Amino acid sequence: EFSGNTDGTTVVSHDLVPPIAARYIRFQPLAWHWQIAMRVELYGCQGI
Fold it and tell me: Where does the record place the F5/8 type C domain (predicted)?
């Protein structure tokens, strides 16, 4: 479970520890305030 930002401009980042090898990753928002919205960026690396 990852916590996100509390406003529209703050950037929040999280590392996956340990790193994972995956073809697909699903994000399931657990809670939101007013209307739901989500922006996600994933960065990969070679040789996992």
Answer: 1-45
